[in-house]
Amino acid sequence: MLTVLLRVLACGTVALAPLEGYLLQVHGQSAKVVPALLIGVWLVSLARRRRLPAPHPLHLLIALLAVVLLATSAVHVAEPFTVEYLVRWVPFLVITVVLADVAAREVPVRWLLAATVAGAVVAAAGGLYSVVSGSLRATGPLEDPNDLAFFLVAALPLLVALPARGRVAWLVLGAVLVAGAAATFSRGGGIALGCALVWLIARRGLPVRAVVVTAAVTGVAALVFASAAQAELARALQEKSHIAGTNADTRMLRWQAASRMLADNPVLGVGPGGFRQEYAAAGHNAEIDEQTPVAHNLFLEVAAELGIPGFLLLVGLIAVGFVASERAWRRAGAAGPVALDEGGGAGRRVTVGAGAAVCGGWTGERAAIGTGAAAGGGWAGQQAAVGAGAGVAGGRAGQREAVGAGAAAGAGWAARRRAVAARAALQREAVAVQAALIAVLVASIFLSEQYYLPLWSLIAIAVALEQRSSKESRCASST
């Protein structure tokens, strides 16, 4: 029962993240309900099973970042935004640890990726509906079109990790996500998506043909929309052109102000939310009509608010995500098909198929598949253990033959194919997570997105992939 709850709540947490605006319309605290339930059920599961999460460098970095947050908050506790933004930071740190643990054990990684895509598709549909309803730029569940683009381009690369048998459906969903992102007219989102696609193609995670087909479908849809709403499109482009020029100027002012804050407070920064409080002074009142904005750059804002230690810890968390996903990719690629293993002694040991056991799978359990433990040499003859793990004993000086050798051999080859397919799926998931992380990081150059889930959930999933691949490697070596 706990496993079912963890799966439902973990998938619900990532799926509902881009729909926060819709949830807030229902109740001001409704967006926090599912993540809070996930944390609570996770704690109960740890207590009942009497275990702790498997240690990982992620936990050390999260703990150190929490210490920095508490220290800088204590120094700047009198500032008006400090407590509010500290309360926003802490849940993301906790949910990162929770998702990394449950995705490594109870929740299939592919389920989390599919839930992320599903939530983004609903958000994209909402954004397109807002355009049809008269909005010049897609917003949907989020007030800022740039924030919507951030969610959509972060979810797009994850499509390559989903099962290939639904290829047509994935192409349609990809077209919806691309159309939604395009309707936001977000330049940062477009650059982020382009970088993610380059990474996927370079790592052979996405065929060029799929990119062309998706672009063609989206292009046709765009032409149809443009012909049906020429006046609205012209007004949207005109508005975006005006906003783009203004945004370029204001972003440069805010980045310069953040740099000054960091230079003046390099150790502990100006505190959580301190950029908004200090901007008018650090920016010399450059924006009279905007006194408490965000920096529109995740890295500069974190550095200004948490100082150099906080910035380095955030970079360390991002590096952990990339290193973990790369290790998972390499381990999956290094594990070749299990071959026949000949032993010494009086006889010959034959292991047919996938070995004594195939470990891993979505839930990480160990599944004995295929050919039984092994076959060892007899007194004067040869023993062959071929089949489902049980044999029929022969004489002392004779041979032992397993019943149903033909069926068992077929099961062994089927097990090998399943093992190879599982490793290929793990590699696709690792590359997809890397591409999504790249999209998040590139988009975050132009946006302050540390208070949205994609960055944290992708790091957690990358760590979970590494832990799953490590388990499978140990299981494979034990056979």
Overview of this structure, please?
- This protein has helices spanning 2-16, 20-26, 33-49, 57-75, 82-104, 109-132, 145-155, 167-183, 187-202, 208-228, 230-264, 274-282, 298-334, 405-443, 453-478, and strands spanning 358-359, 366-367, 383-384, 400-401.
- With 479 residues, it is mostly helical.
- The protein has one domain.
- The chain has a two-stranded antiparallel ribbon with strand order 1-2. A two-stranded parallel sheet has the order 3-4.
- Strand 1 and strand 2 (366-367) form a beta hairpin.
- The two termini are 32 Å apart.
Supply the key terms.
globular, mainly alpha, 15 helices, two-stranded antiparallel ribbon, 4 strands, 479 residues
Helix and strand pattern: HHHHHHHHHHHHHEEEEHH
Domain unit count: 1
Distance between the termini: 32 Å
Binned, the helix content reads 55-70%
* Class based on secondary structure composition and strand pairing: mainly alpha
pLDDT < 50 stretches:
337-398
Shape summary: globular
Q: Calculate the mean pLDDT score and round it.
A: 81
Number of E strands: 4
Largest sheet: 2 strands, antiparallel
- The order of strands across the largest sheet is 1-2
Radius of gyration: 27 Å
Query: Strand percentage, roughly?
Result: under 5%
Helices, by number, come to: 15
